Amino acid sequence: QPLVSSSKWLQLHGLKRNKLSLSQILSQIGFQHRRDYVTTLGKLVASRYADGLFPQYKRAQDGSVYNLTAKKELILHFVDCLMGAIELYKQRMEWLTSESRQIFGVIQERCIVIVLDFGTAAPAEFDLCRDALSMVLVEQVTQIAKFNLIRAAPDLMKWQQKSTPVSEHTVTSAVTWLWKLDHMTAASHTNSAEALLEAMSDDAVSS
Predict the structure, then answer these.
(1) For the chain, which domains are there?
(2) pLDDT tens-digit series, residues 148-201
(3) Strand pairing category for 35-38 and 30-33
(4) Which residues contact 58 (CB under 8 A, 6 or more apart)?
(5) Residue-wise pLDDT tens digits, 102-158
(6) In 5-83, which ranges are E strands?
(7) Sign of dihedral through CA atoms 65, 69, 70, 76?
(8) 113 and 197 in contact (C-beta within 8 Å)?
(9) Which residues, in sequence order, are bridge partners of residue 112?
């Protein structure tokens, strides 16, 4: 799936876009039972002609009443559409909460620098971190334009001097570099800040 935010995804696949919100469906399967102000009577008067003729649905949100006029076939059509929308939402949620996305979210920037600060991670945790970073490189970074890796350390470590165009070769090179890193003692807060500043100094990086 493309690396798009949920708000953009909803613009394409949301209920409103596909005319499947409750108000949109109600307007297609019936009409609203109106209450209008009659000047000569000086009060609100509800239409009576529909009483008893149609099934009615009352919206809990605003108390409005709809007279339902649609045939069964049309209502079943909307049932099918809504079931399809539910399945699509489930697939999106499963995708959002799987693999690298459950740790890093969905990368939307075209150029990124990942700053590595392994803190006080034990050797086993260090390897788990590298597994997760390898996963995000292969799954998501392969879909953007440029990237770089910087490790916070007393002597700053950079995979490349500047962000580099994404290709199969550069991603493989970055993963190899990652797994050649030595486990070392935690970097200081100053080292971490220096690594972040170095990442932000790359003109191609927007955030």
Answers:
(1) 6-97 (no CATH), 102-205 (3.40.50.410)
(2) 999 998 889 999 999 999 999 999 999 999 999 998 866 788 888 999 999 988
(3) unpaired
(4) 64, 65, 66
(5) 999 999 999 999 999 988 888 899 999 999 999 999 999 999 999 999 999 888 999
(6) 30-33, 35-38, 43-46, 56-58, 65-68
(7) positive
(8) no
(9) 147
